[in-house]
């Protein structure tokens, strides 16, 4: 089966997410930082009338954090969390292209550096000379991972309160 | 299931639950005045309609059950039988049962199966005890109601397509009408337009008004029934332009004048009828709307307000001076739009009162107490969302009043109080707030007992001398209950703390006051609307915050050395006392320092005060609140955000949380 993906770059690497999850790509939208939030939450934006949290993918992927004047795009996604949908924004460096990929052409994820959580990927696709890492957004942004965020959040606030 | 049928079924369920509410209300009133004919009629009509309509939609069990109940009321209506406690009890049971049946149309829940049979058997038993009638036989309608002198009636029906959707057959109505007397119908073509049919009917009948109304009861709202005269108009030369209501009335008036010369001051019967209808219950025309549609409207309004402030910001430069008058008008219009949309969401508190009446009735019987409910100002309006959240806390407070407050009749007599206790629910508006008070005239809260209990529980030391207010506040603590015997009704150790929490979630407050032997009062102070509120916008470093204007006492300036001096106690002097401060910069780790003259916003909550330290106070801001969502659930002190003109978001301070934070510092 052929699926459509949206590709983008983070720190020079190519990634892609299934287009079905994507609602909109925002250019340099102002993100309001939330006080006391963990570092991988960049802040919140007003998207179609709702407050939507924005994640910093670089921090999620253990990459060097963004410098103030670096340009960025926000991909607004609907991620399923159990039976619920969870809407969020993901900050990426630059949105590239929409590509169609046949399921058969997706290669398994190889062993990678410990720094990078390979659970976040569901496969690799080779386009020309470029390897594109296909993200499993559910794993990147929801489920047990989100719980950790909450815990970290609590930890964070308990440290700062004491 | 056929989606259209499904849709009608939903409409039916909505209607049926409205009818059951009506029936319940009538019953509660009937208990006080069991001879009131109008009330009996109204109750009977509600049953009759439930029976008819439920049959139409295939709720056969409801229909069968209601038919039995109706026989009982037919007997009462015909004065074969009188109300007694047993009948009231069984009718209340029946109402509850029918409510359950509406969710269980196939009678699959075993509890409902048992009730269906047992209640029907009980009803039959009551009927069998009355010699005059046999169970299950609704007395022939033609025999009911007293015959009066024959009159000519005019009935105007304006039926929209809804009638057809509700499965009501107009033809069968006419069939029923024929049994009452001679009539002629004409369809008023000039008044019938798309989707609406209009008929004019002239009826000469000896039936009383109620019998005629009964025929039309399914379309009551779509028809007007007027008694024209006690002459037989069919015998007079009929005005042939019968399709014009006005001409008929004029004709009748002409006839009346001719018949009784010189008595023109006398009201015609037709006018009397109208007068009576107007003096009766004030009917507010209402439409019911899916609440999701209202939510969407609110969303659109909030987007408009946000866009409007963005627009104002962009055009504030004097080079746009030419369009200023327009922005001003736009501003004005969107404010009105906002107020209107908020207004639509408001519903009168009285819509919830019925369930309290029922609660009071059931509880007081259960506890052998005699309790009367008095209401005042219950047409005060509250946001629909708030009301839904308010029901549980209110029920709980009322339950407590009956259970712990109001004494048993013989004790009351000993104390020289009337044997019947009183619970008063009153509501009023105060600025942006709605105040709801629940008072009882019971024994009051025993403060000594609370103090003893608090010592037992280790909340205070035996040597402590808590103030009256501190003691009263303790009843809102989790697990605190002073009831001597824990009854089934209340006092399972959960309760008042939940009430308090719920009210605080609604950004409201609850105040309790009591006087031993005289009674207890609970005062709830609530925001009338919680979606859009007036706030003060301020800024610390680069982060914007808002606090509700209503929570602010005053804004002031404090030299930073004053703050530095008292940093270890987190207090500042204000009006001859020390009040705690919350250092927003520190609390939210925003970095930077305050300037030499620090701005402080003094917040007020009951008799407590608190200072918020800030950099810049910007000004008023209409905050369209958006929840931050689950991800930030653990974020104390800020729970919502609102958009500013330039697209940035400002965080809404939760003042209750701020006070808690200040106390724990």
Structural notes for this entry:
The complex is a heterodimer of chains A (162) and B (665). By secondary structure, chain A is an alpha+beta fold. Chain A has one domain (2-161): CheA-289, Domain 4 (OB fold (Dihydrolipoamide Acetyltransferase, E2P)). Helices cover 17% and strands 46% of the residues of chain A. Chain A has helices at 57-60, 137-141, 144-161; strands spanning 2-10, 13-18, 22-27, 41-47, 50-56, 73-81, 84-92, 94-102, 121-127, 130-135. In chain A, the strands form two sheets. A five-stranded mixed β-sheet of chain A has the order 8-1-2-10-9. Chain B folds into five domains: 3-139, Four Helix Bundle (Hemerythrin (Met), subunit A) (Up-down Bundle), CATH 1.20.120; 143-261, 2-Layer Sandwich (Alpha-Beta Plaits); 291-345; 347-527, Histidine kinase-like ATPase, C-terminal domain (Heat Shock Protein 90, 2-Layer Sandwich), CATH 3.30.565.10; 532-664, SH3 type barrels (Roll), CATH 2.30.30.40. In chain B, the strands form five sheets. In chain B, strands 19-12-13-22-21-20 form a six-stranded mixed β-sheet. A five-stranded mixed β-sheet of chain B has the order 6-8-9-11-10. Classes of the chains: A alpha+beta (162), B alpha+beta (665).
From the structure above, extract its key features.
heterodimer, A: 162 residues, alpha+beta, OB fold (Dihydrolipoamide Acetyltransferase, E2P), five-stranded mixed β-sheet, 3 helices, 17% helix, B: 665 residues, Four Helix Bundle (Hemerythrin (Met), subunit A), Alpha-Beta Plaits, six-stranded mixed β-sheet, 21 helices, globular
């Amino acid at each position: 089966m052929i699926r459509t993906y949206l590709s983008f770059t983070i720190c020079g690497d190519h990634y892609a997410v299934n287009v079905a999850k994507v609602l909109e790509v925002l250019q340099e939208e102002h993100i309001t930082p939330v006080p006391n939030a963990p570092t991988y939450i960049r802040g919140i934006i007003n998207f179609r009338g709702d407050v939507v949290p924005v994640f910093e993918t670089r921090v999620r992927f253990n990459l060097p954090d963004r410098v103030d004047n670096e340009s960025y795009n926000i991909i607004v996604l609907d991620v399923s969390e159990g039976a619920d949908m969870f809407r969020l924004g993901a900050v990426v460096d630059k949105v590239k292209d929409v590509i169609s990929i046949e399921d058969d052409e997706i290669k398994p994820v190889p062993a990678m550096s410990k720094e990078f959580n390979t659970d976040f990927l569901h496969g690799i696709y080779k386009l020309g000379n470029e390897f594109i890492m296909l993200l499993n957004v559910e794993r990147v942004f929801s489920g047990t991972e989100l719980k950790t965020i909450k815990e970290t959040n609590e930890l964070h606030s308990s440290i700062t309160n004491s | 299931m056929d989606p259209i049928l499904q849709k009608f079924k939903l409409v039916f369920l909505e209607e049926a639950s409205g009818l059951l509410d009506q029936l319940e209300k009538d019953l509660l009133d009937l208990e006080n005045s069991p001879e009131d004919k109008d009330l009996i009629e109204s109750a009977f009509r509600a049953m009759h309609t439930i029976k008819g309509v439920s049959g139409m939609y295939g709720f056969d069990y409801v229909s069968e059950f209601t038919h039995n109940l109706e026989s009982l009321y037919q007997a009462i209506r015909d004065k074969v039988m009188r109300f007694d406690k047993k009948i009231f009890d069984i009718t209340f049971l029946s109402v509850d049962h029918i409510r359950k049946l509406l969710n269980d149309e196939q009678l699959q829940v075993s509890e409902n199966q048992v009730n269906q049979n047992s209640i029907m058997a009980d009803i039959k038993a009551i009927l069998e005890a009355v010699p005059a009638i046999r169970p299950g036989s609704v007395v022939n309608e033609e025999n009911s109601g007293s015959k009066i002198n024959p009159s000519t009636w005019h009935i105007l029906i304006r039926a929209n397509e809804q009638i057809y959707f509700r499965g009501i057959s107009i033809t069968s109505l006419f069939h029923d009408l024929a049994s009452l007397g001679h009539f002629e119908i004409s369809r008023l073509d000039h008044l019938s337009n798309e989707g609406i049919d209009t008929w004019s009917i002239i009826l000469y009948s000896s039936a009383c008004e109620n019998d005629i109304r009964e025929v039309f009861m399914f379309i009551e709202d779509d028809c007007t029934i007027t008694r024209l005269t006690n002459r037989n108009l069919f015998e007079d030369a009929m005005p042939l332009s019968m399709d014009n209501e006005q001409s008929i009335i004029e004709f009748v008036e002409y006839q009346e004048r001719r018949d009784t010369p010189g008595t023109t001051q006398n009201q015609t019967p037709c006018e009397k009828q109208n007068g009576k209808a107007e003096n009766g219950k004030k009917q507010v025309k209402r439409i019911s709307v899916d609440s999701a549609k209202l939510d969407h409207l609110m969303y659109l309004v909030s987007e408009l307000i946000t866009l409007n402030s963005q627009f104002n910001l962009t055009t504030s430069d004097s080079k746009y001076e030419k369009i200023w008058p327009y922005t001003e008008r736009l501003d004005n219009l969107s404010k009105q739009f906002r107020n209107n949309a908020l207004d639509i969401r408001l519903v009168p508190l009285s819509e919830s009162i019925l369930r309290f009446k029922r609660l009071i009735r059931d509880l007081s019987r259960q506890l052998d107490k005699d309790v009367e409910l008095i209401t005042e100002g219950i047409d005060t309006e509250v946001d629909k969302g708030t009301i839904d959240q308010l029901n549980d806390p209110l029920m709980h407070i009322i339950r407590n009043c009956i259970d712990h407050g109001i004494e048993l009749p013989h004790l009351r007599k000993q104390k020289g109080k009337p044997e019947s206790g009183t619970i008063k629910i009153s509501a009023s508006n105060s600025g942006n707030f709605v105040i709801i008070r629940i008072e009882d005239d019971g024994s009051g809260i025993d403060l000594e007992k609370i103090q003893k209990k608090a010592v037992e529980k280790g909340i205070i030391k035996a040597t402590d001398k808590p103030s009256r207010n501190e003691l009263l506040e303790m009843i809102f603590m989790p697990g605190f209950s002073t009831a001597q015997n824990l009854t089934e009704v209340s006092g399972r150790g959960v309760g008042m703390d939940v009430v308090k929490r719920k009210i605080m979630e609604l950004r409201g407050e609850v105040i309790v006051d009591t006087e031993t032997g005289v009674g207890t009062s609970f005062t709830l102070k609530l925001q009338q609307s919680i979606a859009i509120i007036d706030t003060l916008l301020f800024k610390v470093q680069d982060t914007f915050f808002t606090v509700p204007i209503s929570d602010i006492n005053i804004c002031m300036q404090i030299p930073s050395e004053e703050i530095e001096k008292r940093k270890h106690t987190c207090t500042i002097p204000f009006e001859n006392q020390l009040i705690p401060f919350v250092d927003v910069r520190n609390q939210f780790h925003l970095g930077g320092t305050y300037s030499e003259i620090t701005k402080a916003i003094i917040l007020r909550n009951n008799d407590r005060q608190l200072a918020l330290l800030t950099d810049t106070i910007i000004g008023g801001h209409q905050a369209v609140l958006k929840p931050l969502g689950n991800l930030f659930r653990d974020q104390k002190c800020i729970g919502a955000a609102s958009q500013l003109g330039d697209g940035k978001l400002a965080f809404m301070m939760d003042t209750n949380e701020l006070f808690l934070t200040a106390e724990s510092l």
